[in-house]
Amino acid sequence: MAEGLLRAVDIYKSFVGVQALKKVSFEINPGEIHCLAGENGSGKSTLIKVISGVYSPDSGYMEFGGKRYEKITPIDAIQSGIQVIYQDFSIFPNLTVMENLAFNSELADRRKIVNWKRMRKIATDAIAKINFKVDLDAMVGTLTVAEKQMIAISRALMFNTKLIIMDEPTTALTKREVRNLFNIILKLKERGIAILFVSHKLNEVFEISEKFTILRSGELVATGSTADLDSEKFSFFMTGREFQKKTFVPLNVSKEPIFQAKGIGMKSAFHDVSFDLRRGEIIGITGLLDSGRTELALSLFGIRPIDHGAVLVNGEEVKIINPQVAMQHKIGYVPEDRLSEGLFLTQSIADNIVISEIDSLANKIGILDHKRRSEEIERWVRELAISTPNPDNACQTLSGGNQQRVVLAKWLALNLDILILNGPTVGVDIGSKHDIHGILQKLAEEGLALLIISDDLPEVLENCSRILVMKSGSIVADLDAAKSDEKTILSYMM
Amino acid sequence: MKSTISNTLQKLSRRNEPYVFLVLMLLCVLIEIRSGQFFSSNNLVDIASAFAVPGLFAIGAFMVIISGGIDVSFPALASLSVYATTKFLLDVNYQGGVWLAILIALALGAILGAFNGLFIGYFRLPALIVTLGSSSVFKGIMQGALNSKQLTVIPIGMKNFGTSSLFIAKNPVSGLTSRMPVAILAFLIVLFLVYFLMRYTMFGRGLYGIGGSEISAHRAGFGVRNTKFIMYVMVGMIASLAGVMRVCMMQQAHPTNMLGMEMNIIAGVVLGGTAITGGRGTLLGCMLGTLLIVIVENSLILIGVPTSWKSVFTGLLIIIGTGVSAYQVSRMNRVRSVETVAKEVV
Count of H helices and E strands in chain B? Predict the structure, then answer.
């Protein structure tokens, strides 16, 4: 293994009683694109931190370019050519692009005095390496996620970099930006730079990586060439569970539509949208990012009211001018970005569940009935299998999938008739995704009407009875999910 | 060329300084119209002289807020170190120049600042809690251990420094004269040094960096703990220097005279566009904001507002001023999110 760039051998690491890594060995060669996958808490981050010297392993050793280290410091790692791009990109939102780019090398050179000319030159050279064009004097906080990521990549390349570790780089990117990122990764590969790509998105793993390593509960469960991997194996390695795809079959569809949209539109977002939604049905709405799908969802819930057409609930026209009206008509909305829109992260799980039904839990004079409150909380924690030792813990202690369940619980507690979900499983790991799909299908069987807005085509195909495809603000196709496939949908989308 | 001008204008309109400057000018003109006294040479010198001490405090508060921290202990810190210095020099019957008083006060300020810096920088305790606590501790030491009472006599060196002036301005109409105190030089020197520090040293840029994102600063290789510690030491020294200037100019050491200044100073800094959350703001804006507060405090009497109403006006100014900056920020964020969405949709 003379050509190996990095080898980590039999790494053990534990934190106060929790074994985070058990005998994990890992290897990457120059110019290799390697995907590290695993669910939340599988030890991915710990492994990255051991490799980059943030944590020192309890036992085991590492080799960089043939040199053996029992223990490394972050400085050793950087000098050996390892750069980590964290999910938050380690940027300074309040400073200019120039400073963000130049700080690291200025500090590495132990400079004390700032020379703005030199900083500008460093920054210009850095972005030129990946042909990235940006105003060097712009404040980084005003840039898009993709641009911030490009800054982080340019910065990582300033040193004699041999390995770049990217922690879930595609999470907040649009499809187009992901494509752009992949092109850059491929160019880096040509230059002999190895990329360790942390992801739990199946399609990305297949698309970009040559090798993969999957961790589960701190143990290495599989490693090898991506060519030998298929999606069933991948899911199994990730979760240790076998999933049967359970395609949704609508059972108890009501005769009368519970919700009807008649030629609704909103200026510069969507127009002439009509559809009927019945109890027991799951309708999927899909389309590209600019197709107006998110705006439609927001309008149906009254966040951005429609200015054309009519909405009928139970056959009667309703003016949904704000979310309160929507809620009165038993319409719920689970937002796309559950972190910023749907949850009070620092508050307890319990409070998040009961927040929307808090009025009904109070007695006549407005005092909270604690017994009923805890019954409700217990019920939803059980029903949606939210895994927490104590519902009084803060919401931010939960994993992405469990947070999504709390958002669901919050709405279901209202005994809704119609539930709109926008990107219900974005950023959720495979196991939780499967569970959430199960819950949604069960809810439909129990008589709820669901509307799923998603660009995850397998998700839509598997869970919906009908699929509406949007393009440039209008519905271009109304498909029967059982009779369509990804290709058909894509052809309407593009 | 035209586009660069409109570009610059657009950038300016997003900054806070022009607005503060405008309000400041409006206020000055208003006072001038009502009284005809504002732009008289002696009034301007009076304002400059009243500005020296709050200006120094504001520079210290500015550094702390930029780094994402907050310091409410600087008046107590300044009071303690200058009181101890004065008392010691009186006890040894020191007859020399003011330089020794300044040196001793700077040393004491550094030690007291290090106390804050130790808890905030190294033990990572919240700055507000630490400085609220240290403020009490400093007051307690002064009133308990030093048994402080008003010192009506101060050492001769400090006395002479306080009465010496750079020049004297005379109002040709009223015949009133005002002295420009030498203490203004201390302020200008510190202003220049801190400007250089914040703009042209990695230490200063590090303070901005830490204020923006402490984790990123750590990962980039800034010594976050050391930077914070040294900053609190510096701020202690600047505050103590302000204390010495204050005592010299007042010709007496009053132990509680400076206490309670922290709120107006911090308000002035925030008024000048420094983000209370850290990372954003300029020294120029900070000075303009502080000047606004000083003028309101000192010149309302010129337009016939009784001094008892002074705090009401200062309070209103703070609410309106910080409200406007908060609105600015939210507007900017909205523009930003719209721009970002526009970019991402393309």
Answer: 14, 2
